[in-house]
Amino acid sequence: MKAFTYERAASPAQAAEAAARKPGARFIAGGTNLLDLMKLEIETPQHLIDVNGLALDSIEATPEGGLRIGALVRNTDLAADRRVRRDYALLSRALLAGASGQLRNKATTAGNLLQRTRCPYFYDTNQPCNKRVPGSGCAAIGGFSRQLAVVGTSDACIASHPSDMAVAMRVLDATVETVRADGTERSIPLADFHKLPGNTPHRETALETGELITAVTLPKPLGGTHLYRKVRDRASYAFALVSVGAVIQRDGTGRIAVGGVAPKPWRMQAAEAELKNGAKAVTDRLFADAKPTSQNAFKVQLAERTLAAVLLEAKE
Amino acid sequence: MDSIGNPRITRRELLKTGAGVAAALAAPSVALARDKQDAAQPPVVSKVSFEINGKAETLELDTRTSLLDALREHLHLTGTKKGCDHGQCGACTVILDGRRINACLTLAVMHEGAKVTTIEGLGTPDKLHPMQAAFVKHDGYQCGYCTPGQICSAVAVLDEIKAGIPSLASDKLTARPRVNGDEIRERMSGNLCRCGAYSNIVDAITEVAGKRT
């Protein structure tokens, strides 16, 4: 691990300002992903700004009838929150499907959104990776790609986004609240938060240099049946091959997003309009532009079957 | 360095020898990664005070020091084990401010004023914690390397169930979670046991939870 200087942030605005001013600065909250990457020298920050002391760890009701989730709310606490369990069960289930009990106790809401891909070539510093070293190439294309994305990819990168929580938040139309280095605040719809790779796979989010996530806001509850089904290589503590997050209403309409298949939670309203025509009609739309490799082509059919299982469960 | 064949060699020395070999094998990739970087900045030392197993401790540490390395290398509490050092195996599980975490994936300097309980703080050879006694009774280990992490995790798991924190194995999110095999297996999935003592570990935890297997 590279040496770094360390400070504890005094306020969100001060943290954002310091992060923009100091070269090579990164925020650290739970640290479960960042420290892992620092040990491998994939991340080499020269300065860490510890934001754990900022009072961003509460979940509050909004005037619109939704919830405002502080950036530092731990995954365990968010999944266990009484209101989340009752009104946003999809979010609880997605969180509980991710990582391990130990990691969920540390991992934060903002950090979960910002976690990096688990592409094996991103992790191997001996291999080219456009995300890790822009312009170096992509070893995953033509390499071991079973776990990687099938849609939303580019010739530069086929990395998949690993988060379960983000899939649920995408279904729920969450909004990311931030403070920028100049002290101004803004809201970014989660739909626009994660970027597709294109020619710049190292640019993963809409955040500017120094910009700090302060909260994630959920609109008022949708009602309906909340389901999250995750398919993976072992029954617990593994990343998704495919996951489906869904809120299905009694009349058969609803919202769905698919995880494990794209560089961001994969949701299309045109696909949701096909829900009454069954799972295949939905996934045909979702994966119309898919460019799978020979190793991960199975994900398209797996997504259809996982969605079929979810729709069946919603009827029970 | 003693040879492996020397009968006087301790397990710790043997492990050090093994680690040295692994480091030598890994050296080319590390060197290659470093070539891409600018000159490294010198180590930064920072002071941290926390309470470990009820005892106040103050350390001057390189900011890079994980909580795990602070416990093992600086406080010589070697009960907590380093397995993967990447949060994948759970051997380093300790209880931080009442919650189980992977000590390898957090920096010691981030825990000013924190209270940490390690396996040494749960019980002693003369006065075992009930979970330690249950692991012995049910033979919940073979080589024993994952055991301190398993036990710290198991103690926290029962607290989590008691506090009503749900898991993926909970049928209803809004109901109180129950103690059963499915719940224990799901909640303990962050602790790997390569000897495969899992069924006995579940038996031990179930007994401490006050249920019959």
Please outline the helices and strands.
The complex is a heterodimer of chains A (316) and B (213).
Chain A: E1 5-8, H1 12-21, E2 25-28, H2 34-39, E3 47-50, E4 59-61, E5 67-70, H3 75-80, H4 82-87, H5 89-96, H6 101-106, H7 109-113, H8 120-123, H9 165-171, E6 175-179, E7 185-189, H10 190-193, E8 212-218, E9 225-231, E10 242-248, E11 254-259, H11 269-272, H12 279-286, H13 298-315
Parallel strand pairs in A: 1-3, 2-3
Antiparallel strand pairs in A: 4-5, 5-8, 6-7, 6-8, 9-10, 10-11
Chain B: H1 11-35, E1 45-52, E2 55-62, H2 67-74, E3 93-96, E4 99-102, E5 115-117, H3 119-122, H4 130-138, H5 147-162, H6 181-187, H7 198-208
Parallel strand pairs in B: 1-5
Antiparallel strand pairs in B: 1-2, 3-4, 3-5
Sum up the structure in keywords.
heterodimer, A: 316 residues, alpha+beta, 5-stranded antiparallel β-sheet, 3-stranded parallel β-sheet, 13 helices, globular, B: 213 residues, 5-stranded mixed β-sheet, 13% strand
Structure in words:
The complex is a heterodimer of chains A (about 325) and B (about 210). Helix content of chain A is about 30%, strand content about 20%. Chain A is of the alpha+beta class and about 325 residues long. Chain A has a 5-stranded antiparallel sheet with strand order 4-5-8-6-7. A 3-stranded parallel sheet of chain A has the order 1-3-2, covered by helices on one side. In chain A, strands 9-10-11 form a 3-stranded antiparallel sheet, with helices on both faces. In chain A, helix 5 runs antiparallel to helix 9 (about 165-170) and helix 12 (about 280-285) packs across helix 13. In chain B, about 40% of the residues lie in helices and about 15% in strands. Chain B has 7 helices and 5 strands, in the order αββαβββααααα. The termini of chain B are far apart. Chain B has helices at about 10-35, 65-75, 120, 130-140, 145-160, 180-185, 200-210, and strands at about 45-50, 55-60, 95, 100, 115. The chains are: A alpha+beta (about 325), B alpha+beta (about 210).
